[in-house]
Amino acid sequence: MKKIIMLLTLLITTGLFAQDIAGSWYGQIVFPGGKLRIGLNIKKVEQGYTATMDSPDQGVKDIPVDKISYENKVLTFNISAISANYKGEYKDNGFTGTLTQNNMDIALNLGRTPIKADDKAKERPQEPKKPYPYYSEDVTFKNEKAGITLAGTLTMPEKEGNFPAVILVSGSGPQNRDEEILDHKPFLVLADHLTKKGIAVLRYDDRGVGKSGGTFSGATTNDFATDVEAAFAYLQSLPSINKKKIGIIGHSEGGTIAPIVASKNEDVAFIVLMAGTAIPGDELMMLQNYLLGKTNGMPEEELTKLGVINRKIYDVIKEEEDQEALQEKLYTVFNTDMKPLFIANGVPEAQLIPYINMQLKELSSAWYVNFIRYDPTKALENTECPILAINGDKDLQVAAIPNLEAIKRAAAKSGNKKVTTKKLEGLNHLFQETTSGAPAEYGTITQTISPVALNEISSWIIKQVK
């Protein structure tokens, strides 16, 4: 699911003002989970401006900005994939503004002076340091279907041999090969652990991220599945990889993608679902919205009201095929039901227009529509290889019990006797040991992945490849 604070493509409305805002702008958001530096690079063009965005603390550069609005000394933009929007006023040679995400406001001021990284980097004791006690190589492979080249890292116990292997598939949102978030590099830690156990690991930058080609924006879960298929074919071509012992590990949305690939390819030896989504997208979001809202202290009455509105929104997405009609019906729901709720909670009506426009753009996007409509059950029922599904019982994004039970039902229906499901106590969506499971804790927790989760994965895989 969406990583909280993960920076994605900005969707911004076009406008003009006399002040030339071209050039680089720098800011930093501070939240309970830590700090995140932001860079906005604006260029002047004939029709107005174009821009890209950087997230240096996440190792991401040149995120494309689709449009930009600057009018009457006000800069606005939205980040549709994480339900966030920004509004800043130009004064004192900079922008003073607010980033709003999930009804929470975070101050974000933009200026011309670069912000340096903290001198004291956050302690991440599990992160491996070079030189590694195994072979590591940067590689590329081609997705012929999409016509793009993906870049990643292959680690093996030794340079030569015939090793079992896994492909790591990240969660939703543009992720680099380490699935980097809030100074954590979960896939680097997982790859290090597995390689030391004798298993080769291929992890790669998502399309349009890092050194991978292609465009992330506009792609759906099914498109990302073709990237995994290309990674699988690449591993099969290597003499150092045992072609009969290649599996897939997917985290969050990656756990939805793994069964899609495995259900179509009998050569997939096994799959591991780390907080994999196994219930329909609309049901998942209804539950996620409730759990996150409750953890953030939202009153039950308000949670109920929002739940009714969200149900209307998801029903429209599921039922309306025409894109124009879809946006019109979504607008009606927001204007009729959501708008009065925000106004009642003190949100100025003038601020709601860019928010509604941002929401309409996100909710009608190809990825989101596909996500809400998609039911993972069929792919799970058609997956015949061994499956390990693990979830943390503190996961507020992909709740453990509903998803693990859905996997059990799919296995029972298909007759797959090689399915193992485990609920891991005290772990969150990132499989960190936690107290509340709230996303705000992700960055404050020193641990990247609990040893319990790491050992569950490696010990199960070793049994499969013996």
Task: Set out the fold topology.
Blueprint (H helix, E strand, L loop, with lengths): L22 E9 L2 E12 L2 E8 L4 E6 L3 E3 L2 E6 L4 E8 L2 E8 L2 E7 L24 E9 L4 E9 L6 E7 L16 H11 L3 E5 L16 H16 L4 E11 L1 H12 L5 E5 L6 H15 L4 H20 L3 H22 L4 H15 L2 H8 L3 H5 L5 E6 L7 H15 L4 E6 L26 H15 L1
Instruction: Write out the strand line-up for the largest beta sheet, numbering strands in chain order.
Output: 10-11-13-12-14-15-16-17
Number of helices: 11
CATH class of the largest domain: Alpha Beta
What is the molecular shape? globular
Low-confidence sequence ranges: 1-18
Helix and strand composition category: alpha/beta
SSE sequence, one letter per element: EEEEEEEEEEEEHEHEHEHHHHHHEHEH
Distance between the termini: 33 Å
Give me the Rg, rounded.
22 Å
Amount of helix:
25-40%
Task: Kindly describe this structure.
The protein is of the alpha/beta class. It has 3 domains: 23-110, no CATH class; 135-279 and 375-465, Alpha/Beta hydrolase fold, catalytic domain (Rossmann fold); 281-372, no CATH class. It is 33% helix and 27% strand. It has helices spanning 186-196, 221-236, 253-264, 281-295, 300-319, 323-344, 349-363, 366-373, 377-381, 400-414, 451-465, and strands at residues 23-31, 34-45, 48-55, 60-65, 69-71, 74-79, 84-91, 94-101, 104-110, 135-143, 148-156, 163-169, 200-204, 241-251, 270-274, 387-392, 419-424. The chain has an 8-stranded mixed beta sheet with strand order 10-11-13-12-14-15-16-17, sandwiched between helices. Strands 5-6-7-8-9 form a 5-stranded antiparallel beta sheet. The model is unreliable at 1-18 (pLDDT under 50).
